[in-house]
Amino acid sequence: MNDEISILNNVDKIQLKSEPFPYIVIKDALPINLAEELTRTFPMRCFNLKEHNNKRLDISASDAMSKDINSLWKKFILFHSSKKFFYQMIDLFGDSIIDIHKDFFNEINDL
Q1: E-only strand ranges, the chain
Q2: Partners of residue 14 on adjacent β-strands
Q3: How many C-beta neighbours within 10 Å does residue 77 have?
Q4: Exposed/middle/buried for residue 32 (C-beta within 10 Å: 0-12, 13-18, 19+)
């Protein structure tokens, strides 16, 4: 998989915050050309927008793969639902998860 599509690609831009809970802030997480292409090719036809305005739109990774959507979107979704991305998130949040859930996890390998 191609890491350049990862929202976590530029570690220098990631700000890890701990209050009121662990979260990250990433200004310009994606290169502008990639962000523009994803915006331009967003698969609106996969969603029913008739009943609601300003509604969160969800599609599972497996459903997205079976839809007729742009290959860049499929690549983006596949990467962000991969083990590699999971491990990137553990690298960022592992210590916080262990700290918050001491009763369940003792070390990173427990995650």
Answers
A1: 14-17, 23-26
A2: 26
A3: 20
A4: exposed
